[in-house]
Amino acid sequence: MRPELKIPFILAWKHLLRSNKWTLSLIIFFMSIAFINMIFVPSLFNGIIEGFNYQIINASTGNIFITPQNGQDYISNSSAAITAIEETSGVTAASPQISVPGILKYDGRRGSWSVYAINPTKEKRVTVVSQKMIAGSYLDASDTDQIILGKGITGTGSKEDEINPFDLRGVQVGDTVIFSVNGTDTPLIVKGIFNTKFDNTDNNAFISQETLKKINPLYVDDATRISVKISKTGEESDIIQKLEKRNIPGNIYSWEQASSLMSSISDSFLSINVILSIVGTLIAAITIFIVIYIDISSRRQEIGILRAIGIKPYLIRAMYIILSAVYSVAGVILGTGLFFAIIVPYFNFHPFALPIADATLVVGAGDFIARMETLIWVAIIAGLLPAVFITRIKLLQAIWGGK
Amino acid sequence: MDSQHPLISVENITKTYHLGEVKVPALNGVSLQIERGEFVIITGRNGSGKSTLLRQLGLLDRPDTGTIRLQDEEVTSMNEKQRAALRLRKLGYIFQEYALIAELSAVENVMLPAMLLEPISICRPRAIELLHKVGLKNKMNNLPRQLSGGEQQKVAIARALINHPTVLFADEPTANLDSIAARDVLEVFQRLNQHEQATIVMITHEEEETAYGHRIITLADGKRL
User: Fold this and answer.
1) DSSP A63
2) Beta-carbon neighbour count of residue A125 at 10 Å?
3) Please, which pLDDT band fits residue B110 given cuts at 50, 70 and 90?
4) Structure confidence at residue A95 as a pLDDT band (50, 70, 90)
5) How would you classify residue A89: left for phi > 0, otherwise alpha for psi between -120 and 50, otherwise beta?
6) What is the number of other CB atoms lying within 10 angstroms of the CB of residue B164?
7) Distance between CA atoms of A264 and A257, rounded to whole angstroms?
8) A366 φ, ψ to 5°?
9) Any residues with CB less than 8 A from the CB of A335 and at least 6 apart, and which?
10) Lower CB density within 10 Å: C or N end of chain B?
11) DSSP tag of A68
């Protein structure tokens, strides 16, 4: 190795070791803030998307969603289908639901809400409705005259309720609501009220299959949809293939296919994320440029002296590349520490409350590494530019300024 | 190396600075020769062109016209890379303001120019020896801020000597020093000149300091008197 090549490393090391510790700490702190700024937004979007995904899978469709075959209103002989589905490897549980068209009435108010008859035991294994009871309790399989209502039906208690003429405002656990099907009124006792925070589900009401049999004695073993829970999210397509081989009588979709909402949200967030990432990178670049520029400007005379004693400009630039790389790596380490030790836990305890999900910060490994690399490269370029500038000015101007 | 030729030969150099629209002539046709082993004092009033001349000789700046030859090699037309190499290998320059690197210790400051050419194992002992010569062996690990002005200037002298320069340029090296420290520094120069035949070109405008030199060159209004 040529002896001169060690000069930038020695100068950078001594600079880090002996320069003002407050200044050094401040530079690294700025770097860490720039890095946090770069990872916060994608983490938030990941968190929102993951929150939505969780809600769709766990509060609505399950991982896999089966609808009647084209031209059919029902999945007939659903018990056999459920057995076949549950025998498929990778499937945890399957729950049949049958839509019961009707009108719910309470205290002079009425609304055409979606009411589904379910097998409470199976439903409990597929969705989280049973865990989201905010009043009363969940259905039992043996219930014959009870109903659980989503919070969208009972009213949220907010001002928005004033403009919703259809909710059963004021209904409470133990009250009786009237479920009117084909002109026949059936009184049902409100056994519980649930709030999954997923509007599609919270605007539903559930009764047991036994209750449906009481309302409609002609009910046979049909289902309007089957929700399937699998053991490992992400393996939906494999399991769909297996189900198709078993000739399950229905159209089989993954939760993503079943929810057009999700793909439109993901696409929108992707676009916003790209724009904000570019802005974040620019902010980081400008911050780092300013920080390094101020650092270099304050050492202009020293750089002039280095040049005067014969140190070639490229060695001085190399020193600043090393310093910028060290600053940025230290900033990434500090930023990572602050992010995972303070910011992520804070938002785990205080998630962003969105209308359909609570969003926390979720860091994707790919995003994290990409932004880490971006910050380091941006820092190196932002550090190199002022170093090139300062080593190009006239030697006398660098040492003495002015003329 | 041809010992028939002077070490430095300056022919009719001019230098004009441009301060916006205003032209300020600093050197106006200066010629001189410096022989090996000489201790030359350049003196003159403020604004006479002393520092400008020394910067041309030390290859920190280029004259507008005229030529400078070092060991009979024309150096004014060299590119910046060649001039940097010459500064490193053949010239030692001592600044009025010490010009040490704040984050390097005394010994590190001294060995810095040598580290560009040689391994640390070779240049460190030489740096220590030079600090010993200028009387700072016991402060070699001090940072510049832990040294007095005179001590910092001695470190700068040791740094200028580390690569065995052909000639040593000193731009008012005692200007920021008290009289005792100034005498110390001048005695270091005198010893180097007398015992090691170092060629020294030093600027001063202190009358009593001119006594240390063999020859005095006086400038006024950018010309030799």
Assistant:
1) S
2) 15
3) very high
4) very high
5) beta
6) 12
7) 11
8) -60, -45
9) A31, A32, A33, A34, A35, A36, A39
10) N
11) P
The single-letter DSSP state of residue A198 is: -
Helices (H) and strands (E) in chain B, counts: 6, 10
Tokens at residue B176, please?
């920021």
Residue A152, pLDDT score:
87
**Prediction ipTM score:** 0.86
CA dist., res. A392 & res. A242, Å (int):
68
What value does the mean pLDDT take over residues A365-391? Answer: 88
For residue B78, the model assigns a pLDDT of 92
B52: nearest CA in chain A?
A: A396
- The helix-helix angle for A313-338 and A260-297 (nearest 10°) equals 130
Instruction: Give φ, ψ of B62 to 5 degrees.
Output: -115, 140
Interface test with chain A among B100, B103, B121, by most A beta carbons within 10 Å: B103
Average pLDDT value over all residues in chain A: 87
Both tokens assigned to A230? 């699998």
Q: Which chain A residues touch B61 with a CB distance below 8 Å?
A: 394-396
Q: Which helix (H) or strand (E) holds A176?
A: strand A176-181
**pLDDT tens for each residue of B163-202:** 989 899 999 988 888 888 888 889 988 988 998 888 999 9
Residues from chain A that touch B55, judged by Cβ atoms under 8 A, are: 396
Contact B205, B174 (CB under 8 A): no
Residues from chain A contacting residue B102 (CB–CB below 8 Å): 18-19, 302
Residue found under tokens 């068209």: A101
Do strands A184-194 and A225-230 pair parallel, antiparallel, or not at all (unpaired)? Answer: unpaired
Out of A244-253, A280-289, B11-20, B36-45, which region has the weakest mean confidence (pLDDT)? A280-289
Which tokens sit at A371? Answer: 């932004």
**Quick one: what percent of chain A has pLDDT higher than 90?**
39
Hey, what are B139's tokens?
């402060």
Closest chain A residue by Cα to residue B119: A3
Which whole number is the average pLDDT over A192-200? 89
Who contacts A299 (Cβ-Cβ below 8 Å, separation ≥6)?
none
Number of helices (H) and strands (E) in chain A: give both, helices first.
15, 14
Q: What's the pTM? A: 0.76
Q: Tokens at residue A117, please? A: 């008859």
What is residue B32's predicted lDDT score, i.e. its pLDDT? 95
Contact call for A17 and B103, based on CB within 8 A: yes
> What would the two tokens of residue A236 be?
């939906």
Mean pLDDT of A173-192: 92
